[in-house]
Amino acid sequence: MKWNIRTDLAVETREIYKKAEKLEDEIPGIETNIENVLEGFTITEVKILSEEGVNALGKPKGKYYTFEVENLHLGIEEIDNNVSNKISDILKNLMNLSNEDTVLVIGLGNEDVTPDSLGPKVISQIDITRHLIKYIPQYIKEGTRQVSAIVPGVLGTTGIETSDIIKAIAEKVNPNKIIVIDALAARNIKRIKNTIQISDTGIAPGAGVGNNRNRIDKELLGVPVIAIGIPTVVDSKTIVSDVIESIIEKDNIDDKNKEQYYNFIENMLPGIENNSMVTPNEIDEIITNISRIIADGINMALN
């Protein structure tokens, strides 16, 4: 494929790489496990185990869990509960918290821009306990874990790099573990409605939309950083590329003539390289429902 396809999802990067390299077997340095939780609900775990895997997928070593759930965005109670429980289970496994551990939850993004509002929406539903334990401990159940949360805003509204804000807060709060929530970019627009990714590698805000900021991870903050996100946008170039690929496959175009298709589309659509991001018109409903599911999973995992 001619254009660089942007995606934050490890499962999609793996698919793209295998297709490009025409691999039947697993990518060297990568291990993949698929759990069929229920009908219409699978979790794919992609482990990047070595530098060879890092180079192939362009992502840090670690574990990436991708939830793919039919009708995830519709607010169906049974589906929501199953997904929240699985989020809780994975978070517990990744964080391995003791009763004394404290957790900082960070919601990245801009709450005034719907496709970028996932982080703030989740934070508004997190059970915050740090201040209660500090000021009214007599009313708090024994063994309750300290949880604090912050929405640091975006560079365009604060004038401060998000990573600098988070680092300063982490140094003051001194958490044992950090959870970061952010909107992601996907390759396939179908994944916007039914996908959640959890990883233990931290996150690079804005990477999926070409606005890379400093990574928020253990190297920066000194403690493990778990990242949770859902894809909310797709690069317009990706959609055009998918159309081209469909034509090439349908017409059985050989490699020699593929370039003519790419050149034709590029010339017909001047400005495609200037990049536009596409999101479905029901994105507000998607964000509202899935943010609640994620918040419920985090709350169950932490207390």
Would you list the SSEs in sequence order as H and E? HEEHEHEHHEHHEEHEHHEH
> For the terminal residues, how far apart are their CA atoms?
46 Å
Number of strands: 9
What are the segments in which pLDDT stays under 50 over at least 5 consecutive residues? none
Strand-residue proportion: 15-25%
Q: Can you say what the CATH homologous superfamily is?
A: HybD-like
Write down the Rg.
Answer: 20 Å
CATH class: Alpha Beta
Structure description:
With 303 residues, the chain is α/β, with parallel strands linked by helices. The chain has a single domain, classed as HybD-like (Rossmann fold). The chain has eleven helices and nine strands. Strands 1, 2, 3, 4, 5, 6, 7, 8 and 9 form a nine-stranded mixed β-sheet that branches. The mean pLDDT is 88.
List keywords for this structure.
303 residues, alpha/beta, Rossmann fold, nine-stranded mixed sheet, 9 strands
Describe the structure concisely.
The chain has 303 residues and is of the alpha/beta class. It is 40% helix and 20% strand.
Task: Record the SSE blueprint.
Elements: H1 10-21, E1 30-38, E2 41-48, H2 51-57, E3 62-69, H3 77-95, E4 103-107, H4 118-123, H5 130-135, E5 147-150, H6 155-158, H7 162-173, E6 177-186, E7 195-199, H8 218-221, E8 225-235, H9 236-251, H10 255-268, E9 277-278, H11 283-302
Parallel strand pairs: 4-5, 4-6, 6-8
Antiparallel strand pairs: 1-2, 2-3, 3-7, 7-8, 8-9
